[in-house]
Amino acid sequence: MTDLFKSRIENIKNILSSENLSNLLILSDENIYYLTGFYGKNSGSLLLITDNKLHLITNFLYLEQAKKSIDNDSLNIVFYRRDRFKKLLEILEGYNFESVNLEGKNISFKDGLNLGKMLSRQNKEFKIKDGLVEKLRIIKDEVEISKIKNACKITDNAFNKILDYGAKKVESLSEVELSFSLEELMVKNNSIGKSFDIIVAYDKNSSMPHYSPQKIKVKDGIVLMDFGCRYTNYCSDMTRTIFTRNNKICNEFKKIYDIVLEAQYKAIKFCREGITCRELDSTARNFISSKGYGNNFGHGLGHGVGLEIHEEPIVNPESNTVLKENMIITVEPGIYIEDFGGVRIEDMLLVKKNACEVLYGSTKEFFIMADF
User: What is d(CA 243, CA 251) in angstroms, rounded to the nearest whole number?
Assistant: First the structure.
């Protein structure tokens, strides 16, 4: 594993060299982990990469964790108690470059102003250089693919356990309780927790794509569940829409469900290396529009998943990103009708040369839970 992180460091240095950059300041916890093996979530850590040395600046609270996580002789670990940028400037005194290149999307406006003033005292400035590490992260290596597949397997198993509950048990739970049941099942199956705030939306609430579960009892009808876990820091993301008992509302929803499912199947069949994200999006979107529900599918078809639950590439009508082998994306078409309800079906896909691999195995067919 040490060789893996050292290889990634060499790769980012090659990118810096190709762009004639002498340094890069990394503020993203995920990017720091990707390059070093240290993951201090919301730690405020900084990683300064120069031609011949790396400097990790972290809060005292994370110092021991950093030392135990990193095995790289060329990496200097230092800690700060109050001001990370003050510690950064102490290190920068030993370098004669005039500008510091940093990830602009990972620093607040206030911190940017403060850092700019501090750098000016050394006759330095900062320049924004976004997406350099993400350029590497967008293609998953074998270690990452293995971890993500494990996260997906855990998520799959949790969903199947919920199906085993039967309609009677599910209907005894509220949306919040069902979301906690999903999280508990994933944790018990070797995950380190949920990868995002789980969505469980019953009945009409399912028309809100990013709904937050409430203390509302799940009764007979539609239940949309969007959930995922973290396995060794890598994420999964899955959505299933199921029905409890065979009643009128289930029959009304079957038409919409079948359209969404067919749209997803079309996208999965089309997904492969060489197509653009917008082309993939249009495969599902055009089908949904042809059935009269184009205005009810208001979000992109999907997104990349890895160390973050939403990362590059973004699969939407505006994205010209070309899919490449070993990218991992979601495909999640949906139809949402206000005050009626919604259907979304989501899988994660591993892009391959001439096809893709679906990373989930659980059922997507129209499903009415057994009444036991």
Answer: 10
Same domain for 234 and 365, yes or no, is: yes
Same domain, 245 and 353: yes
Q: Do 261 and 310 share a domain, yes or no?
A: yes
180 CB-contact burial (10 Å; exposed 0-12 / middle 13-18 / buried 19+): middle
Does residue 109 sit in the same domain as residue 204? no
**Range 244-249 contact pairs with CB under 8 angstroms and sequence separation of 24 or more:** 244/167, 244/170, 244/171, 244/218, 244/219, 244/220, 244/368, 244/369, 245/167, 245/220, 245/221, 245/368, 245/369, 245/371, 246/368, 247/220, 247/221, 249/203, 249/220, 249/221, 249/222, 249/341
Nearest-angstrom CA–CA distance, 72 and 64: 15
> Helix (H) and strand (E) counts for the chain?
11, 19
Tell me the two tokens of residue 25.
Answer: 């300041």
Token code pair at residue 61: 């609270």
What confidence category does residue 167 fall into, taking pLDDT thresholds of 50, 70 and 90? confident
The residues with which 234 forms a beta bridge, in sequence order, are 231
Distance in angstroms (rounded) separating the CA atoms of residues 15 and 131: 11
At residue 349, φ and ψ (nearest 5 deg) are: -125, 140
- Preceding omega of 317 cis (within 30 degrees of 0): no
Q: Please determine, for residue 1, whether its predicted confidence score (pLDDT) is greater than 70.
A: no
- pLDDT, tens digit, 9 for 90 and up, residues 70-81: 988 889 999 999
Are 170 and 84 part of one and the same domain? no
Q: Considering Cα of 157, then 160, then 164, then 169, what sign does the dihedral take?
A: positive
Over range 325-341, report the average pLDDT: 97
Containing structural domain, residue 73: 2-137
185 in the same domain as 89: no
Q: What is the DSSP string of 208-228?
A: STTPPP-S-B--SEEEEEEE-
Question: Do residues 202 and 328 share a domain?
Answer: yes
What's the whole-number mean pLDDT along residues 158-172?
A: 91
Q: How far is it, in rounded angstroms, from Cα 231 to Cα 147?
A: 7
Q: For the chain, how many structural domains are there in total?
A: 2
Query: What per-residue confidence (pLDDT) applies to 292?
Result: 96
Kindly list the distances between the CA atom of residue 362 and the CA atoms of 62, 95, 240, in Å, as whole numbers in the listed order. Answer: 39, 55, 9
Position 178 scores a pLDDT of: 97
